[in-house]
Amino acid sequence: SVGHSNCPRGCTNCSLDNGCTACRRGFFFTFIRTGMRHRGMCVASCPLGYYGVRRKTYSFCNSCQIDHCSACFSRSYCTLCQPPYISYRGRCLERCPSGLYYANYSKDCRLIVDCMIGPWSPWSTCSRSGQTCGYKYGITSRSREVLEGPSPNGASCPALSENRCCRMEMRHCA
Known about the structure:
Radius of gyration: 28 Å
Helix content: under 10%
Order of helices and strands: EEEEEEEEEEEEEEEE
Number of strands: 16
Number of helices: 0
């Protein structure tokens, strides 16, 4: 056993061969595999694929036990499924249950999925007939992308492009 001051952050006891053997309050005990070797480690939050279990005198990380799950909240509740699986009420499914629609932005099944759009692009250069000079007025435009398409019962997407009249900087071409 190594003295407490020489242990990695979060450890109260450790050994040179096995790493941490006990953790400070608020840290979770977990094993990190390096090649064929497992070493104990104390972490502030459990790694992906594990969830934290707190007990009165110690806390530890437990692995998710749900098929196709990448991150979980508890032994039986998945919060992030491996693609192409879909998260629904803590389970990982191949498709949404009947009557529900997949929301690709939040990656879950919902009764209603409304259109979600991204931010406007910057306004384009003022031009007319493909030229940026030779006219007093031209047109400038901007656009935005659909981040999430609506379900049949969801709110439809607003306009994705806009045009407006603009004054050209160079009325006469050089």
